[in-house]
Amino acid sequence: MNPLPWQARFLRGLARPNVRTAALAVARSNGKSWLAGRLAADYLLGGGAEHSECVIVASSYTQAKIIFRYAVRMVRDAGHDPDERKAWHYRDGANVALLRNREDGRAIRAIGSDPRRAHGRVFGCFLWDEPAQFPPGQAEAMLAAVRTGAGKVRRTKIVALGTRPAGAGHWFAEWLAGGADYVQCHAARPDDPPYQLRTIRRANPSYDYLPALREDLLSQRIEARADPVARARYEALALNRGTPDTAVRVLIDAEVWERIEGDALPTGPCVWGVDLALGESMAAVACYWPDTGRLEALAAFSGDRSLTERARRDGAGRAYARAAEDGRLIQLGHRTVPIDLLLREALRRFGVPAALAGDRQRARELLDAMDAVGLGGVAWVKRGAGFLSAGEDIRDFRRACLEDRVTPVPSVLLRHCLSVARLAGPDDAGNWKLARKAESGRRSRSRDDAIAAAILAVAEGSRRRATLGRPSWRSLGVIG
């Protein structure tokens, strides 16, 4: 089988001498596994360095073996017999998938998602299938292991292939945005009509060549029109839009957030929302200026762990590092974040607020910290995290965003927190709240505290603005 035009284009791009890392994003079932198998077979049959391996990794060992078996079949098609013991060492079992040429030492090997399996390997090519499907934290640990071993063979190539991840903080998303030496992305654009054929073709370059794919995509399109769950899967896997492949309850669509981002002036009185840290959580202060809509946030972790370690544990990619680079994520204290230090830093950046909204459960700690930094005279608004109070705040926050009364300052911190925030509910009265721990598909280690603070700030600021805008009146008594 000869490569399709888009596959040949990728092979040519990867073959450039200066390319060490390559990223390919394409919708499911377009022939990505065949292409990866072709790369592995080419490496084994003379394209790689002697006594080195082409390592194939996927989120499961079973998935990695699919590509491995494609490569073995291509080796057979090229006139070689892997079963000939004198020439080849061949194993395809429950724990080991390996094909090695005994003469020159070149090999292809499949491994699962455990980063420990990648340590110590002497590889000249690393094929990474569907990096966005790795469990949180494992993708970053695997990438660290791969980078450590990449210098053992001259001109090592690391190739990542898969659908786009749901969230800009994932390292694969950063590669696709230009972080890799060669990038090829086949995906529908945000404003493309989802059911038109030109949109489907943009994400599926094999559409005109594979009848089975064409039939399946048209069937998915019909199903997606009628079922929101099917539509989420269709958008993520068939159109490769970098969205979750299951229907999740998000606070605000990423497209809406991107549209309203800007750099409005910090004019007029401001309102703070404060979300305090519990244990290893993030603490955050968000500041909202109702007159202009400007919204920005500051967050802090304690200093007992590095941001790199926290990001690996939380599955945050480089989001924490990038948020620290632009100054919106800092580290304070040792084991916990001192509230007074966080408020003092927020005061330095944002100025004195007209009001401050926070969780009533930790009111005493917050009020003591406010007194310590000179904010004792600021209006203090108690808000709850349950459905009744949070439901009102979320409605006010959403309405303000959709009515263009919020202009978030472009921020990696807010974008990341928005991408992991999930809603739980509704209750019998139709109220929603931010999900905690593992509610509504939210990962238990996800950190959405800056968005929680932003909800409090915008909701309270919107209520105060509406109250101040009402016409004054007085009673004239009963008119008889």
Percent of residues in β-strands: 15-25%
What does the overall shape look like? elongated
Q: In total, how many beta strands?
A: 17
Strands side by side in the biggest sheet: 3-4-5-2-6-7-1-8
Largest sheet: 8 strands, mixed
Termini separation (Å)? Answer: 95 Å
Give the helix level as a range of percent.
Answer: 25-40%
Kindly name the structural category.
alpha/beta
Short description:
This protein is of the alpha/beta class. The protein contains 16 helices and 17 strands. 39% of the residues lie in helices and 17% in strands.
Describe the protein's topology.
Layout: H1 5-14, E1 21-25, H2 32-47, E2 53-57, H3 61-77, E3 88-92, E4 97-101, E5 107-111, E6 123-129, H4 138-149, E7 157-162, H5 171-179, E8 182-185, H6 197-203, H7 211-226, H8 228-238, H9 254-260, E9 271-275, E10 283-289, E11 294-301, H10 307-314, H11 319-325, E12 329-331, H12 339-350, E13 355-359, H13 363-372, E14 379-383, H14 387-402, E15 407-408, H15 412-420, E16 423-424, E17 433-434, H16 449-468
Parallel strand pairs: 1-7, 1-8, 2-5, 2-6, 6-7, 9-13, 11-12, 11-15, 13-14
Antiparallel strand pairs: 3-4, 4-5, 9-10, 10-11, 16-17
Helix pairs in contact: 2-3, 7-8, 12-13, 14-16
Give a quick set of tags describing it.
single chain; 16 helices; 17 strands; alpha/beta; 480 residues; 8-stranded mixed β-sheet; disordered C terminus
